[in-house]
Design brief:
This protein is of the alpha+beta class. The protein has 2 domains: 251 residues, Jelly Rolls, CATH 2.60.120; 34 residues, no CATH class. The chain is 13% helix and 26% strand. The strands form 5 sheets. Strands 1-2-9-4-7-11 form a 6-stranded antiparallel beta sheet, with no helix packed on it. Strands 6-5-8-3-10 form a 5-stranded antiparallel beta sheet. Helix 2 crosses helix 3. The chain is elongated.
């Protein structure tokens, strides 16, 4: 059995050969989506990508993002992403979404602002704004720097596949196939390859007698039939129009909170920063983090809202369903590491270490 994923790099990051200037914070910053802020909605469905092609710093980091804009009544036609699951977070409006698994079962849902929905890797899926008056906007996270997109209407009817073959496949006549081809503007052809083939398209937390099933990491806490609700996460709805928190707050949609992410190698978090707050120094041992700032301003390296008056909010995407978080202040000074060891490591005295520990002592 063979499997593959985005290549695992042996350095912290990959610098393209055509970059000759010293690498600084600008290399890790993507500003192209700023143009969408306050802009008029597009006349047609539009995807603005931040993948490796647009943002070279993502090379080797196994994560990417896209902003999806749906004017009233528009759709993102049935398509697949051969190299990643898609975790969609609806920011504005409402969407009808769905995917079809390998047993030809449709899983569908109607999403409200603040909801998430996961489309498992490689499966045919779609999104539709059924509202005839209002636009919708979503942010999608992918567990690959180059998830790829295969549009089924384009792939089937604009790439030169013989009319007779298509007519036989769809059990129709050549005239119908030619009418479908005429209605779809030609697009440049592209090729893709599957970098990973999971044992099943999603992991259900219980062994079942009918496919698809997971062969590992199964729990016994889901007993009802799986439908679109299993792939929907609604807990972040509560943040929509809510008052900002008093302290920095992270609302996660990882495999712990959203079991449908099991095996999909993607997760999201909403980060809220009241004025003057910070997300202390930390690491994610199982993933890079791709942060998308949607409100306010942040100083990053560490994450700090230096604005003394206004809050900030960001979405962070991860190329793992369980990226993990190691908070360095807590790990170092709230886990009972011996005072003397810490004093020697930080070249200070025990009294200083004890003062740091006292400030980080768990609150009741």
């Amino acid at each position: 059995m063979a499997s593959a994923a985005d290549p695992d790099i042996t350095s912290d990051f990959v610098v393209p050969s055509n970059v000759t200037a010293p690498v600084d914070g600008n290399f890790f910053t993507f500003t192209a989506i700023r143009a969408l802020v306050g802009a008029q909605p597009p006349p047609n469905f539009k995807v603005t990508k931040a993948s490796m092609a647009e943002f070279p710093a993502l090379n080797g980091q196994s994560v990417s993002l896209a902003v999806l804009q749906f004017p009233a009544g528009t759709t993102n036609p049935p398509h697949t992403h051969p190299r990643s699951a898609e975790l969609l977070f609806l920011v504005q409006g409402s969407l009808q979404v769905g995917f079809v698994d390998t047993t030809n079962k449709l899983f569908s849902q109607t999403l409200q602002a603040g909801d998430m929905f996961v489309f498992p890797k490689g499966l045919v899926h779609f999104q539709y704004n059924a509202d005839a008056q209002n636009p919708a906007t979503a942010v999608s996270a992918f567990g690959s720097a180059n998830a790829g997109t295969v549009s089924l209407p384009v792939t089937l009817f604009t790439t030169g596949i013989d009319d007779t073959i298509l007519a036989k496949s769809f059990k129709t006549d050549v005239a119908t196939v030619q009418a479908l081809k005429a209605g779809l503007a030609p697009k440049p052809s592209s090729s893709f390859s599957y970098l990973h083939s999971p044992l099943s398209e999603w992991h259900q937390p219980q062994t079942r007698t009918s496919p698809p099933i997971s062969l590992s990491q199964l729990n016994a806490n889901v007993t009802s039939p799986v439908d679109g609700n299993f792939f929907t996460f609604t807990s972040i709805r509560a943040l929509v129009s809510a008052q900002p928190p008093q302290n920095s707050k992270v609302s996660k949609a990882s495999v712990t909170e959203f079991p449908a992410l099991n095996g999909q190698s993607v997760s999201l978090a909403v980060l809220q920063f009241p004025a003057g707050t910070t997300n202390p120094s930390h690491s994610h041992p199982r993933s890079a983090e791709l942060l998308f700032l949607v409100q306010g301003s942040l100083e990053v390296g560490d994450l700090f809202n230096a604005d003394a008056q206004k809050p900030a909010m960001a979405f962070s995407a991860f190329g793992s369903a369980n990226a993990g978080t190691v908070s360095l202040p807590v790990t170092l000074f709230a886990t009972s590491i011996d005072d003397m060891i810490l004093a020697k490591a930080f070249k200070t005295d025990v009294a200083t270490i004890q003062a740091l520990k006292a400030g980080l002592a768990p609150k009741p």
